[in-house]
Design brief:
Number of strands: 18
Bound molecules: 2-acetamido-2-deoxy-beta-D-glucopyranose
CATH class of the largest domain: Alpha Beta
Helix content: 25-40%
CATH superfamily of the largest domain: Zn peptidases
CATH architecture of the largest domain: 3-Layer(aba) Sandwich
Length: 515
């Protein structure tokens, strides 16, 4: 219906448009054929998690599948663009009836991520992103052949989403050149077409004459950062500190914090913590014990869920910060602090994950954080900022309509949301320019479509967390989650084929792309 209306508007290209009325059923048949093998690969990747830039098994699995097990479907480029764990698949359908030049062949790309998180495996569900990318591309590829539609499809295997902006490096290497429309889909706890945050990590280094000095200085800085909440510039801005002691990973809030107090009795420390730990600390608990590390030492071991959810709630680190704050404001001179198990350390690192809704506010948020702690820190550096991702409507409207229809499970909950739940390196690909006052989207480097789809089953006892929570790794392994990815991939394949066969639709979709 929508297709033919767009065709009326488009004067060129529609006379040869294929009849797509059979496409939904055709994609189901193709899916029955291609999805099971791809799902097995996703399950293997889930069971063998590899962190950013180390995704060697995932890379080899896909490359072997398309060069050895199933050769001839795609032109396969291993180690694409010189990145050891990037790959590219390329396919052009040129039906016998096609007489145009290669320049007339439209092209769409799918992005596939497959990196995991240190210590907590596929707790961001990227095993579903590679599955979605390969499945949607494979379904669209076969449909183009069956329907005689001249078109080209690429799949770009993009390493290192989590840590150092793999797609930013790929973009700089030209990997997205020549393809204006890129699609992917991200599993999470709810369905939404929504923007994603901008992000930059400030890495602050603290030094002290003694171990007790450095712990005090670092915790003074942590108090200052905590107190920035609510007064940061920009929209929905946050600054979440992560202590780089023990297991540290960018993007993962520590699940366990050890914090020591010397100079007070165990009972005094215990009652302080008891007074602080209310139900705003969701899932946080602690144990307390005498410590032999220092004289009269008491060690707290604080545990909590970790992950992005703890950025919204209060983390184990936050409980240690509030304990420090309370014990320093009661003003007992003899109280000092230490890190149990690390009492020789006189240098500490704290990473502050700065996030905000719009890229244009990132510098101001970072500046506020760094100036707040500049008198405490000996050195501060930042990693590569992840730009925010903006919502683009033409593809989204069509995708949402598909999610609402019976072929895709009549999912009435799907809609737009203005909440930006996390960051993504797909912002490097989109490279959005927005109006500084109205925040209206003015132009993009590339069209990026990145719906977030829910994989929590919602039945009692089914594992459900938010991305980066350890439990989300279990969510990402359920049969339900694989079923959800099949539906989303099939819808993306349908949108892709529709765009590829309709020049008017392609023009509409790409109208904001800078020339
Ligand atoms: C602190 O202790 C933990 C656990 O014993 C250890 O893994 C970590 O490397 C130590 N960190 C430093 C900075 O010494
Ligand atoms: C800490 O305080 C709580 C609440 O009063 C109590 O249940 C717990 O046993 C105390 N822990 C220790 C080790 O004394
Ligand atoms: C404490 O919290 C951790 C992390 O959420 C959890 O794994 C653990 O079971 C909890 N312990 C208790 C005694 O509730
Ligand atoms: C989507 O949200 C808009 C407002 O945000 C609302 O008007 C519309 O009815 C919603 N659509 C569906 C299908 O829920």
């Amino acid at each position: 219906m929508i297709r033919s209306q767009l065709c009326l508007l488009a004067t060129i290209g529609c006379s040869i448009a294929a009849d797509l009325s059979t496409l939904p059923d055709l994609l189901k048949t193709i899916s029955d054929d291609v999805f099971p093998d791809l799902k097995s690969m996703s399950q293997y990747i889930h069971a063998h998690p590899e962190t950013s830039t180390q995704e060697f098994h995932a890379h080899d699995l896909v490359v072997d599948y398309y060069t050895t097990t199933n050769p001839g479907l795609w032109d396969v480029t291993p180690h694409a663009y010189g990145l050891p764990t990037a790959f590219e698949l390329d396919f052009t359908n040129k039906p016998a009836s096609f007489s145009g030049s290669d320049d007339d062949i439209p092209i769409i790309g799918f992005m596939a991520e497959y990196d995991a998180l240190l210590g907590i495996g596929h707790a961001c569900g990227h095993n579903h992103i590679i599955l979605n990318g390969l499945a949607a591309a494979s379904m669209a590829r076969q449909a183009l052949i069956d329907l005689d539609i001249p078109a080209r499809i690429k799949v770009l295997g993009t390493p290192d989403e989590e840590n150092t902006g793999g797609k930013g490096r790929l973009r700089d290497l030209g990997a997205f050149d020549g393809v204006d429309v890129w699609m992917m889909a991200h599993p999470t706890s709810a369905d939404a077409v929504q923007p994603m945050q901008g992000r930059v990590d400030a890495q602050a280094n603290f030094v002290g004459e003694t171990h007790a000095d450095v712990v005090r200085t670092a915790y003074e800085a942590l108090v200052l950062i905590t107190d920035l909440a609510g007064s940061l510039p920009g929209t929905a801005s946050t600054a979440t500190p992560v202590e780089d002691v023990g297991m540290f990973a960018i993007n993962v809030v520590a699940q366990e914090i050890v914090f020591g107090v010397a100079g007070l009795s165990l009972q005094e420390v215990n009652s302080t913590v008891q007074g602080l730990l209310d139900d705003t600390y969701v899932g946080v608990n602690y144990t307390i014990a005498e410590s032999s590390d220092v004289e009269n030492g008491v060690a707290l071991t604080i545990e909590g869920p970790g992950g992005h959810a703890s950025e919204g709630n209060k983390s184990p680190l936050r409980l240690s910060i509030e304990t420090f704050r309370t014990l320093t404001t009661i003003g007992t001179e003899e109280v000092s602090f230490f890190l149990p198990g690390n009492t020789t350390v006189t240098e500490l690192d704290v990473t502050v994950s700065c996030r905000t809704r719009y890229t244009i506010d990132l510098d101001a948020v970072l500046e506020t954080v760094t100036s707040a702690i500049s008198s405490k820190t000996s050195r501060i550096s930042t990693d590569r900022p992840y730009p925010a991702l903006e919502v683009m409507t033409p593809l989204s409207d069509r995708f949402l309509a598909l999610m609402h229809d019976a072929d895709h499970g009549s999912q009435a909950d799907w809609n737009y949301s203005t909440i930006a739940p996390a960051a993504t390196d797909a912002g490097f690909v989109q490279d959005a320019q927005i109006d500084t006052d109205t925040k209206e989207l003015l132009s993009v480097g590339k069209v990026v479509f990145h719906p977030n789809f829910g994989i929590c089953e919602g039945t009692p006892g089914a594992p459900c967390g938010f991305n980066h929570e350890p439990v989300f790794a279990q969510t990402a392994a359920t049969e339900y989650s694989y079923g959800r990815t099949e539906i989303v991939a099939r819808a993306l394949a349908q949108v892709a084929v529709e765009v590829l066969q309709d020049k008017g639709f392609m023009r509409e979709v790409t109208k904001l792309v800078r020339g």
